[in-house]
Design goal:
Layout (H helix, E strand, L loop, with lengths): L4 H6 L7 E4 L4 E5 L5 E9 L2 E10 L4 H16 L4 H17 L2 H10 L8 H19 L9 H13 L3 H20 L29 H12 L4 H13 L3 H5 L6 E2 L4 E4 L10 E4 L2 H14 L19 H13 L7 H12 L4 H7 L18 H19 L3
Helix pairs in contact: 4-5, 4-7, 5-6, 5-7, 6-7, 8-15, 9-11
Amino acid sequence: MALSDRQILRARPKGAPYKLYDIDGLYLLVSASGSKLWRLNYRHNGKWRTLAIGKYPEISLAEAREETAKARKLLAAGKDPSEEKRAARRAAILAARNTFGVIAREYLDGLAPKGLAPVTIRKNRWILEELIIPKIGSRPIDELRASDILAVLKDIEASGRLETARRARQVIGAVFKLATLTDRASGDPTPLLHRALRSPTVTSHPAIIHEESFGKLLQAIDSLRSRVIRNALLFHALTFPRPVELRLMDWEHVDLEEGVWRIPAEHTKMRRPHDVPIVFQSLAILREMAQITGRRSGPVFPSPVGLRGRISENTLNHALWKLGYKGKHTAHGFRSSASTILNERGYRVAVIETQLNHLEEDETKRAYNRAQYWDERVAMMRDWGELIERLRRGG
């Protein structure tokens, strides 16, 4: 006679284990402690075997009968249900060890022994741990297809971080290469996506946009003999204004107590006033310039020749050329450097664009607000200043 839910609920432990039989070999084993376990007796290759189905009430009567039906189908196909269950468990354990996230972390752990620069390791770690692993980290790597990878990259691309999407494709490919070499994946799908992503807009102003190379540029600037030119270029890197805004910067535009550089509307391309946060690193440069010039009036960055007049954009660009960056980076290029690196680090596009003083395309947003995103911009610029300081030290 088939079991009922009422019989199962009323079953109480006795001095020894006992069985309550259902149909097709299924029974409930009631232990002396009171636990209720589903078991299935079956015959395979002339031998009686027992399949452990699960515990009641986690596995209901209806579910236990479903598992029994599945086991009977396997037997009809000449397969042993117990062996199939063990094989499935082994496959699940193996799949858990071969997820994209597990192999990605193996890849990251192997970067330092290869002698890669710390900034490169940090960049790869940020891309994988912040952008990729949360999306596909739990999936077995050999089950991932090009379409799965493309969906993740398109999400990054949609945020405006085109260079990050391109870099992410390369890093994902490196993880797949490791998996393929260790027989945990059958190949790398990322080459199929080479033309599926938009290319970053090419700027007419050459710029270094990769952190590691940007760090080398900053270290080269530190080697300049002229303190005025060195400070002007470093201040340019820290605040990334348009070159004309830097050249026209006067002490009257600087409020050291409030920590802000107030650029007048007539000095900006958009003909609207623009405020720039002054953080610790840029403040130190301004104080040094006050010592160098001996005054706090007139140009903040005067011509290095006699400290009279204003520094020119050509002076800054020629200094970069002498450092070996002709055709690679210009004074205006600091804007592209900051925009690309900050986007890759996950700062909000609107905050970055406001800091760059770019014109809003939406007419309803063009009314300038000097305090727009101010707190976020201050926090971002503090982080940017700390990053530049680390890169100057080679970190």
